[in-house]
Design brief:
alpha/beta; metal-binding; single chain; Rossmann fold; four-stranded mixed sheet; 12 strands
Length: 328
């Protein structure tokens, strides 16, 4: 393409807003296609004993990849297979217990049409998403989902724009409807996202990151304030728990309490920790989500919290532990 000069006063913002308006109108038309065929497709996928295999060429393939990824992360096992590669061996990935979703705006994708006889022979259920109910793919499908838009946002009417957006939304509608039908939870979602921040927030428990055993700063009520300060220094968590011989919590003493003691003019050499500790103290259970413990610590303006089973001290979790674990 030869280089051309930009037309004086050309309004990029107006051009962009026109695209939004056209695609918005296209999505408004989509509601009519959430019909009995949509219900049948959802039921077929809900009861599928295998996986949902999504196929599409060109831009439909890009939409299909996103659709498969959304299914897989929301409780519907799915993957994408390129139709051209399927004709050269990748069709072996598809089993008789699977469902194939084939996407083509025209419904006449040669690469997909070439696969349909084999899919029929294997008795693989076929859902086709096209804009033409009379197309070859629609007529061959067990279930046809129509996704038709009035206009493409491309002024030439050539580049798939509104049609691909509408197909993407139809895929999201299928995935979310199935998610709700399955009773899919946030924790289920996190299990498929263990490496991300979301997974860490939804899966990580206090017990996974707390300090336990010899790492727990603790002294008995008979200890002196000096002994408690030495314990705080040794364990480097900015606090110490005060416990009895069975590790039952009696109280807590923190760096913040130390500043208060300074203001009181207490004799550090002779004062007992029992005389300056905060009785009881905030605590969390080991099975609490780390993100919930973090929210509690932030709301109480504290940097460390005791982990307890009832009154029994079993650990300490610090804000720095949250940072290292990527919860913050």
């Amino acid at each position: 393409m030869t280089h051309i000069m930009l037309e004086p006063g050309f309004d990029f913002q107006q051009a962009g807003k026109e695209v939004l308006d056209i695609e918005r109108q296209g999505l408004e038309q989509l509601d009519q296609y959430i019909n009995d065929d949509f219900t049948r497709a959802c039921e077929m996928m809900f009861y599928c004993q295998g996986k949902v295999v999504v196929m599409g060429m060109g831009k439909s393939g890009h939409i299909g990849k996103k659709m498969a990824a959304t299914f897989a992360s929301t409780g519907t096992p799915a993957f994408f297979v390129h139709p051209a590669e399927a004709s050269h061996g990748d069709l072996g990935m598809v089993s008789t217990s699977d469902i194939v979703i084939a996407i083509s705006n025209s419904g006449e994708s040669n690469e997909i049409l070439a696969l349909i006889p084999v899919l029929k022979r294997l008795k693989v259920a076929l859902i086709c998403i096209t804009s033409r109910p009379e197309s070859s793919m629609a007529r061959a499908a067990d279930i046809h989902l129509c996704v038709k838009v009035p206009h493409e946002a491309c002024p030439l009417g050539l580049a798939p724009t509104t049609s691909t957006t509408a197909t993407l939304v139809m895929g999201d509608a299928l995935a979310v409807a199935l998610l709700k039908a399955r009773g899919f939870t946030a924790e289920d979602f996190a299990l498929s996202h263990p490496g991300g921040a979301l997974g860490r927030k939804l899966l990580l428990r206090v017990s996974d990151i707390m300090h336990s055993g010899d790492e727990i700063p603790h002294v008995t009520q008979e200890a002196s304030l000096r002994d408690a300060l030495l314990e705080i220094t040794r364990k480097n968590l900015g606090m110490t728990a005060i416990v009895d011989d069975l590790m039952h919590i009696q109280g807590i003493f923190t760096d913040g309490d130390l500043r208060r003691v300074f203001d009181m003019g207490i004799d550090f050499q002779n004062a007992s920790i029992a005389s300056v500790m905060t009785p009881g103290g905030i605590r969390v259970r080991p099975n609490m989500l780390a993100v919930d413990a973090l929210n509690l610590m932030q709301s109480k303006h504290i940097t460390a919290v005791m982990v307890a089973d009832g009154d029994q001290l079993i650990g300490i979790v610090h804000m720095h532990d949250m940072l290292r674990a990527g919860v913050v």
